[in-house]
From TrEMBL:
GO molecular function, a single term: DNA binding
Pfam family of the protein (one): DEDD_Tnp_IS110
Source organism (scientific name): Candidatus Hakubella thermalkaliphila
Domain Transposase IS110-like N-terminal: 5-147
GO annotation, biological process: DNA transposition
Protein name in the entry: Transposase IS110-like N-terminal domain-containing protein
Length: 158
């Protein structure tokens, strides 16, 4: 039996909707994002399921949790998933059901999931960029404090 699982993923918990191919909701539940809860649920249902998760900042954790199971996973593109963004009533339960429904009807706009090596390199580059940005901000603050006290530096910070 083909199943469609929509997951509204948050930092500590996720809301999951499991749907059959006719669109009947088989199960809706809230789980903690720990291997003993989320991992066990997915392990039970990954065999004949298509899974979709919202592309939030912490989707890496979810994907790495189930990556070895070789699941059929799509990452829902947040900007293109207008059905969720434009809903009048927004709850995690409704969002997960909408994700499952869009997945079932093949209308889910998917984002690219890069291989682990690419994800790791991107993570390092993001961290470096944030450190460079922090360095610039600190230099600007020092210059502002000096300027406020009438001190002008004629040298460049290195």
């Amino acid at each position: 039996m083909k199943q469609y699982i929509g997951i509204d993923f948050h930092r500590q918990t996720s809301y999951i909707t499991r749907m059959d191919k006719e669109g009947n909701i088989l199960e809706q539940l809230k789980v903690k994002n720990r291997p003993e809860e989320l991992g066990v649920f997915l392990f039970k249902h990954v065999e004949d399921s298509k899974i979709a998760i919202e592309a939030t900042g912490n989707w890496y954790y979810f994907y790495e949790l189930i990556e070895e199971m070789k699941p059929d996973v799509l990452l829902a593109h947040p900007l293109k998933t207008r059905a969720i963004a434009s809903a009048r009533i927004k709850t995690d339960k409704i969002d997960s059901a909408t994700i499952a429904h869009l997945l079932r009807t093949d209308l889910l706009p998917a984002a690219y999931i890069p291989p682990r090596e690419v994800r790791d390199v991107k993570e390092i580059l993001r961290y470096r960029a944030s450190l460079v940005s922090l360095r610039v901000a600190l230099k600007n603050k020092v210059r502002a404090i000096l300027s406020k006290n009438g001190i002008t530096l004629n040298v460049r910070f290195q």
